[in-house]
Design brief:
The complex is a heterotrimer of chains A (about 300), B (about 375) and C (about 500). Chain A has one domain: ABC transporter involved in vitamin B12 uptake, BtuC, CATH 1.10.3470. Chain A is mostly helical and about 300 residues long. Chain A has a two-stranded antiparallel sheet with strand order 1-2. In chain A, helix 1 packs across helix 6 and helix 1 runs antiparallel to helix 9. The N and C termini of chain A lie far apart (about 70 Å). Chain A is built from twelve helices and two strands, in the order ααααβαβααααααα. Chain B has a single domain, classed as Orthogonal Bundle (ABC transporter involved in vitamin B12 uptake, BtuC), CATH 1.10.3470. The radius of gyration of chain B is 23 Å and the shape is globular. Chain B contains 13 helices and two strands, in the order E-H-H-H-H-H-H-H-H-H-H-H-H-H-E. Chain C has about 500 residues and is of the alpha/beta class. Chain C folds into two domains: about 230 residues, P-loop containing nucleotide triphosphate hydrolases (Rossmann fold, 3-Layer(aba) Sandwich); about 140 residues, P-loop containing nucleotide triphosphate hydrolases (Rossmann fold, 3-Layer(aba) Sandwich), CATH 3.40.50.300. Chain C is about 30% helix and about 25% strand. A six-stranded mixed β-sheet of chain C has the order 6-7-8-3-9-10, sandwiched between helices. In chain C, strands 16-17-18-13-19-20 form a six-stranded mixed β-sheet, with helices on both faces. Chain C is globular. The chains are: A mainly alpha (about 300), B mainly alpha (about 375), C alpha/beta (about 500). Chains in contact: A-B, A-C, B-C. At the B-C interface, helix 8 and helix 9 of B face strand 1 and strand 2 of C.
């Protein structure tokens, strides 16, 4: 029984890391007032570039960095359109996703079936991994997973305890006020969009370097969209993002578990649907109930321009 | 006299004529760069695409076939967007249209009078899509929940459910392990034209495009939709029930996407199988935007996108380039459109150097 | 021989245009330090534009700004603030979910997070200038007067020497206005220069040292306050010709009440409702005016009467039918027309043509056919344009291209054509030039034959010119209803608007 729980838990955490990384990045982006629907495309780019860099260099750090950078660069394209040109952010993000899907599809062909140059295996943390159950679940993961663990409190600290975070949150609530205070709203939004791209890129790199590993077309399977939904689930708070990501991972793990043991307590398709259903439910609660206060940044998706 | 660049003072007004052609030019140019980067002569590549899409009657008929679901989803998105609603859920609504059409064709058809089978199928497809769009519509109208994300998430739910159906309870027992349902009843197949794969869905799409255009321009309902889309505050002042309109438009939008799904199942696949959810819903967004939300232009931009897709497949067989290039071109076209729309927000004017008009006057000519 | 130091601030031939509109034309102004300046002018005179240029929000097309003799160029409000020039806008630039301290600290460059130290520094600053506010309070919970103080603190924290205020008293109560003027004096004592924009003559006389008057984009006069003989003189400078206080108002027989409201109270929840216990009636053929300083509840009361928001308590009797507070919102649409204050963003749709706009509030009338008869609407629009002399670029031109006056006349024509029993007109001549104002007044007075008119305005001149009876609102209540004909009552109105003299 315990082994089963450990098995499920371990896979749950494994399956949650990509969503977690992308969600953290998107939280920062949206907090500054920019809606980036291109996460799926950026994740794919990160997966492909991470894998390619891994094959070329064989160096795990270079591979992860390459993936992160790929996501970041694509995000800058979105930032240019959304922040500087002030176009409709929904369209720009969607175009980015399509671009990402198309580009990775045809650039990635030579890499299909290729052996990954880098495999981020699970590394147990000495001492912590010996804790019964918890140790197996949380502390026998890959390096990128541990990075994700660290990024959660880091993001929280950034947003709520630093001057930079104050500016970011203010820019997402009332860009005019921030501009009047002499702060460069455009720079903040560019930076935060870039960070969001880094998060999505890292998430993709995690998938191709650790989770799958390897490159397959459309290997992100919609996790980019899940991440966008998880931002709302988490009410734009990095700490709560963990819950959402873990929930997604847990449901994914249950699917594997039922397959592995050959029984189906809950039908597979219901398990697959649950993350999306739950996200919709959370959206309803957040908007309707006393959670009215938890609504997103007031300026989300609205471009800022000063007249004259 | 000096030339200056000034911001146009009126937003929401008709955009200048050059916006779309400029976007097209941009896409062609960037596409050429991409081909060069791949070591291919861009002229040869574009020629291959043209040949593959309009080079023969058969090829063009394939373009039309591809364009039919795009016309419908494009109409769905354009209608919703006229009222500032983002229906990103066309993919899921299309799937539900397909599910309902397949269900009708498989299980209901034998029990219906033959002449009713197709009409019922069409209604079922429309209803399936409409009801699926009702969810984000109600949530938006009454709880102000963002419809972009709800309709998007529902896509995944719909696709998962459809796969469950044709892998599971609806699976064809004589399918040789191939996932998918049995073929629908012959009576449920919609008619085809010219000996090609072009099906009745084309007629539906064109008629609906005309109806929606006419409705928006000449009906009370259409006036309300346009008013809310241009200025919700004024619409509220005028006493329009925004909630009712949101629900109504989403239902109609979903119905259009549902018909697209129905047409694919009843006109192309003749069963429920893989290959229904291939992105027509998302492409509809591009089609709608390229058409600047004008229902009469939607069939044209749908044809353009269809040509792009079919042309892309030609690239694969003739020049051994991956078909996904057309996806990249699609994205570039969309970016090009965003760029030229931005440019359209400014205008080049000639100004006398010294100001000579009183501040209280305002130009009345556009 | 002494050389006088250059003035703290000097504007030389500043010009600015937006599209086809020239907002500022060759403005020159010299301001020595340590005085309180009033920048006076009607709506649309260009005052806000000029100050926005000074505060760095806009860049002038031509001209120079000099600080202490040195020419400067501000690319942004932040740069201006670095040089010591800051502005308090009408719409406060505060981030609601953050605290006072966080808002004050929000600035370019590294922001310290040592909250307690900063809070103490802010408290000291506030004390020095007499600005009472709690540094730990969330901005969302503050009153307008308190928020304004936070804005002032923001500027002082950054060591601004020149503080500009754009219509600072528009959102304040009388007590808060007096506090503000005291703050101005304090600032002056500390050597700061204060510029405030206003169109209210009493304020100018109350607190300014020097007055600058703008009209239609130009600076027409600069004078010391003690040289001004009467408000009438100032008014003439602002408007440019003798202010007509009386319009030709033919007598009208007044009939039975069309609208009777008793005990209306707005929704408030835990906060105080914005209007309480409102009772009055509007009679056939009469012009009944609701007036008061902006922000005393008139806007919310009108929105509730127009059915846009809800009523919590009270009853409304309209055309002899009685409605409860809850039932009023569901009343049938016919019989009542509402002309909103915001003609561009609420009363019309800028991207619709004139013909399409003419239909906006009339969609429910006529035969119940689902199709629209555009030719007929076009005819009606053409007739209206003739009758009301609406000048534009044709019926199919966009409403957004009409001037304010023509747009307002279009809206009037539309609402009049509905033949309403009750017409609610909210600030109908705001922002219009004198000719358009006269046109609108004439149209309203003519309409008395068909409708009872409820006029809502903050413009006392307008109220006195048009009304039969005037109700003055203060802090959400009607202090009194006076007759517009009785001269003794007219003086009382000014007192009532300040909250005094209620019987």
């Amino acid at each position: 029984m315990i082994e089963d729980l450990a098995f499920i838990g371990q896979i749950a955490v494994k399956s949650s890391i990509a969503v977690l990384l992308a969600t953290l990045g998107e939280i920062i982006t949206e907090r500054s007032g920019v809606l980036n629907l291109g996460v799926e495309g950026m994740m794919l780019a990160g997966a492909l570039c991470g894998m390619a860099a891994g094959v070329i260099t064989g160096n795990p750090f270079a591979a992860a960095a390459a993936g992160a950078l790929a996501g970041g660069l694509l995000a800058l394209v979105h930032a240019f359109f959304a922040v500087t040109l002030k176009v409709n952010q929904v369209l720009s993000g969607l175009a980015l996703t399509i671009l990402g899907m198309g580009l990775t599809s045809f650039l990635g062909r030579p890499l299909i079936g290729v052996r990954p140059g880098v495999r981020l295996r699970s590394i147990p943390i000495p001492g912590l991994s010996d804790i019964p159950l918890i140790g197996d679940i949380f502390f026998e993961q890959s390096l990128l997973a541990y990075l994700a663990y660290l990024l959660v409190p880091l993001c929280w600290y950034l947003l709520y305890r630093t001057g930079a975070g104050l500016k970011i949150r203010a820019a997402g609530e009332d860009a005019a006020a921030v501009d009047a205070a002499g702060i460069d709203v455009f720079r903040i939004r560019y930076l935060c969009t870039f960070i969001g791209g880094i998060g999505a890129g890292l998430a993709g790199a995690y998938l191709s370097l650790s989770y799958t590993p390897g490159w397959k077309e459309s290997m992100t399977g919609g996790q980019g969209w899940v991440a966008i939904a998880m931002v709302i689930f988490a009410t734009w708070n990095p700490l709560r993002a963990v819950i959402g990501a873990f929930l997604f991972g847990f449901l994914t793990a249950l699917q594997f578990y039922f397959q592995a043991v050959g029984m189906e307590l809950i039908p597979a398709y219901i398990l697959k649907m649950l993350p999306y259903v739950l996200t919709i439910l959370v959206m309803v609660v957040v908007h309707a109930g006393p959670g009215r206060r938890f609504g997103g940044p007031a300026a989300l998706g609205i471009p800022f321009s000063r007249e004259g | 006299m000096a030339w200056r660049i000034e911001k146009r003072t009126l937003s929401g007004a008709r955009a200048p004529w050059w916006v779309f052609p400029a976007a097209l030019l941009f896409a062609v140019f960037v596409g050429a760069l991409i081909f060069v980067g791949l070591g291919v002569n861009p002229l040869a590549a574009y020629a291959a695409m043209l040949k593959g899409s309009v080079g023969s009657f058969f090829h063009f008929s394939e373009v039309v076939v591809r364009a039919i679901p795009l016309m419908l989803t494009g109409l769905a998105v354009a209608l919703a967007a006229t009222m500032l609603l983002w229906n990103i859920g066309c993919e899921g609504q299309l799937v539900w249209g397909g599910i309902c059409a397949a269900g009708t064709g498989l299980f209901l058809a034998p029990h219906l009078p033959p002449v009713l089978v197709i009409p019922v199928t069409i209604v079922a497809g429309a209803a399936g899509g409409a009801l699926w769009a009702l969810i984000p519509g109600l949530l938006k109208a009454f709880l102000n929940v963002n419809e972009i994300l709800t309709s998007l998430l529902l896509n995944y739910i719909a696709i998962i459910f459809m796969e469950h159906l044709y892998f599971g309870p609806w699976r064809n027992p004589e399918g040789f392990g191939f996932p998918g349902t049995a073929q629908i009843n012959d009576l449920a197949r919609i008619p085809h034209f010219f000996g090609t794969r072009i099906h009745f869905g084309l007629v539906l799409a064109l008629v609906l495009a005309a109806l929606i255009y006419g409705g928006l321009r000449y009906s009370r309902w259409g006036y309300r939709v346009r008013a809310i889309g241009l200025n919700p505050r004024a619409a509220r002042y005028a006493g329009f029930s925004i909630r009712r309109q949101i629900v109504g438009v989403m239902l109609l939008s979903g119905a259009l996407a549902g018909i697209a799904g129905m047409a694919e199942v009843s006109g192309i696949h003749f069963r429920l199988q893989q290959g229904l959810a291939v992105g027509y819903g998302y492409d509809g967004i591009i089609v709608a935007w390229l058409a600047r939300l004008n229902p009469l232009a939607v069939p044209l931009t749908a044809l353009l996108l269809g040509a792009l897709i079919v042309g892309g497949e030609q690239l694969q067989s003739l020049l051994h380039l991956p078909a996904s290039i057309s996806m990249v071109l699609e994205a570039v076209l969309l970016f090009g459109l965003l760029l030229s729309e931005t440019l359209a927000r400014y205008r080049l004017v000639r100004r006398p150097d010294a100001p000579d008009r009183s501040a209280a006057e305002k130009e009345t000519a556009p | 021989m002494t050389v006088s130091p250059p003035p703290a601030l000097a504007l030389e031939k500043i010009s600015k245009r937006f599209g086809d509109v020239v907002a500022n034309r060759a403005i020159s102004w010299s301001l020595p330090a340590g005085r309180i300046y009033a920048l006076l002018g009607e709506n649309g005179a260009g005052k806000s534009t000029l100050m926005s240029i000074l505060s760095g929000r806009y860049q002038p097309d031509e001209g120079t700004i000099r600080l202490n003799g040195r020419p400067v160029r501000f690319q942004s409000p932040a740069q201006a603030l670095e040089q010591g020039v800051g502005m308090v806008y009408q719409r406060f630039m505060l981030v609601e979910p953050l605290t006072v301290t966080e808002n004050i600290l929000l600035r370019r460059g590294p922001v310290s997070r040592a909250r307690s130290r900063e809070a103490r520094a802010i408290r000291k600053l506030a004390g020095r200038y007499g600005l009472a506010v709690d540094p730990e309070a969330t901005v969302r919970d503050l009153s307008m007067g308190e928020r304004q103080r936070v804005e002032i603190l923001k500027l002082l924290h950054r060591q601004a020497d020149i503080l500009i205020f754009d219509e600072p008293t528009a959102v304040l109560t009388q007590t808060e206005i007096e506090s503000l003027f005291a703050i101005f004096q304090r600032l002056k004592t500390e050597g700061k220069t204060v510029i405030f924009i206003t169109h209210k003559l009493e304020e100018v006389m109350a607190v300014a040292d020097d007055i600058a008057v703008m009209r239609r984009g130009r600076m027409v006069s600069q004078l010391a306050a003690d040289k001004v003989r009467s408000q009438h003189d100032l008014a003439r400078l602002m408007v440019g010709r003798e202010v007509i206080l009386n319009v030709d108002k033919p007598p009208m027989s007044i009939g039975a009440p069309v609208l009777t409201v008793r005990g209306l109270t707005g929704p408030g929840g835990t906060a105080r409702p914005s209007f309480r216990n409102i009772s009055f009636d509007v009679r056939q053929g009469e012009v009944f005016t609701l007036t008061g300083v902006a922000g005393n509840g008139q806007e919310d009361l009108v929105a509730a009467l127009a059915g846009i928001t809800s009523l919590a308590k009270g009853s409304v009797t309209f055309k002899s039918r009685r409605y409860s507070a809850a039932g009023w919102r569901n009343r049938p649409a016919a019989g009542m027309a509402y002309i909103p204050e915001d003609r561009d963003r609420v009363g019309s749709i800028a991207a619709f043509s004139l013909v399409e706009n003419f239909l906006l509030t009339r969609l429910a009338e006529g035969k119940r056919s689902p199709l629209l008869n555009w030719p007929q609407v076009a005819d009606e629009t053409a007739n209206a344009m003739k009758r009301f002399t609406i000048r534009g670029s044709g019926m199919q031109g966009l409403a957004g291209h009409l001037s304010g006056g023509n747009l307002q006349k279009l809206i009037l024509a539309r609402e009049f054509s509905r033949k309403p029993d009750l017409l609610i007109a909210e600030q109908p001549t705001q922002g219009l030039d004198v000719q358009a104002t006269e046109d609108v007044w004439q149209a309203l007075l003519r309409q008395r034959q068909t409708s009872a008119i409820l006029l809502v305005t903050g413009d006392l001149k307008e109220a006195l010119s048009l009304s039969d009876r005037i109700a003055v609102m203060f802090r959400g209540e009607i202090l009194d209803i006076v007759s517009a004909r009785d001269t003794a009552d007219i003086d009382r109105i000014k007192l009532l608007m300040a909250g005094l003299g209620a019987r």
